[in-house]
Amino acid sequence: MTTPLIVTGVRAEACDVLSFELRDPDGKPLAPFSPGAHLEIDVPTANGPGLVRHYSISSDWRDTDHYVVTVARAAGSRGGSIAMHHDVRVGTTLEVRGPRNHFPLDTEAESFRFVAGGIGITPIMSMVRWCIANNKSWSLLYCARSKNRAAFYDQLSSMTEQVRFHFDDEHGAPPDIAAELGQLDLRDHVYCCGPTPLMDRVREHCADRDPDSVHFEWFTADPSPQLTESQTGEFDIVLRRRGARAVVPPDRSILDILEELGVNMPNSCREGVCGTCETTVCAGEVDHRDHVLTPSEKAANQTMMVCVSRAASATLELDI
To answer: Which residues are within 8 A (CB) of 48 and not within 5 positions of it... i.e. 6 or more apart?
Structure first.
């Protein structure tokens, strides 16, 4: 179910980066959100059907009268960011779902180390605001191609004790994550959002840490690794509530088969990064291939993303 929200402000944050302020048309309070949350927006386009896209909320979680989403115009975009920049103006009504949060801030943690790359700063901004309001220890490494492409630069540049910038055009190379992050304290929780190469370097640097203290928000899925025949073989799915059973062949996803069966399964990215298709698992073992669930959530085997994850057992029974 979508909620109509009206665009009441558009602000340029950096080169090819715009923030959009969204409010209820009647001025009603909006659903609360927590730092790291995102909205699923039906992006209108001038020439064709709308596009469903997920954008992190960059505004303060205490602001209940509006949301702000910040969008970078990507040349290689599948159309969502280009449509937001070209077709969305003050007065535009957008159909919105959420807020939802697959990148939540652990508010019980003692200290936070944030790493953002490019537009990956958007969920981090809400987290930084929460840390400041709650007197939490935090630091931020913000990486961008250049200063003029760094959203929120003016706001962050005044926080010199907590924020370090790395601009590729000034340094001539990507950041040295090991040098930038240094020796992490056991109390630190690491939050990273940005391009895949940056995320991979942070993941490598944090490989020996408690996985529940390292958190990532992925834009796109990793390139598919080489999988064994047993990992790509066919398996059965049982739809408990429908009383149906079907075979998932090696070259099809569970989501593909559900759509063939006429199941109206919410989905968006089809890459395991948005969490829209999360489904409860009643029985069987899951081969998790998403970037949404935490290691502990995957080990619990209670839900799965049917767009990419498969079965590690002969049969999976789903609450569908």
So the answer is: none
Which residue is it, tokens 């630069």? Answer: 153
Distant-in-sequence, close-in-space partners of 286: CB < 8 Å, separation ≥ 6: 298, 301, 304, 309, 310, 311, 312, 316
Q: Are 202 and 190 in contact (CB under 8 A)?
A: yes
Q: Is the pLDDT of residue 224 over 80?
A: no
Phi and psi angles of residue 8, each rounded to the nearest 5 degrees, phi first:
-110, -5
| Proportion of the chain above pLDDT 90, given as a percent | 76
Residues 115, 87 within the same domain: no
CATH classification of the domain holding 31 = 2.40.30.10
Pairing mode, strands 188-194 and 214-218: parallel
> How would you list the strands of the sheet with 315-318, edge to edge?
244-248, 235-239, 315-318, 278-283, 303-305
At residue 229 the predicted structure's pLDDT band, cuts being 50, 70 and 90, is very low
- How far out from the chain centre does Cα 303 lie? 18
DSSP for 77-107, please give it: --SHHHHHHHH--TT-EEEEEEEE-SS---T
Domain that holds residue 145: 111-218
Residue 172 sits in a domain whose CATH number is 3.40.50.80
Give the count of alpha carbons within 13 A of 183, CB side only. Answer: 0
- pTM value is 0.83
Q: Please give the pLDDT value at position 76.
A: 62
Rounded to whole angstroms, the Cα distance separating 134 from 81 reads 33
Q: Is the pLDDT of residue 49 over 80?
A: no
> Order of strands, edge to edge, in the sheet holding 93-100?
51-56, 38-43, 93-100, 3-14, 17-23, 67-72
- Residue 284 CA to residue 316 CA, distance in Å, equals 5
Number of folded domains that form the chain: 3
Q: How far is CA 117 from the centre of its chain?
A: 13
**Cα dihedral sign for 139, 164, 130, 295?**
negative
Residue 269 lies in a domain: yes
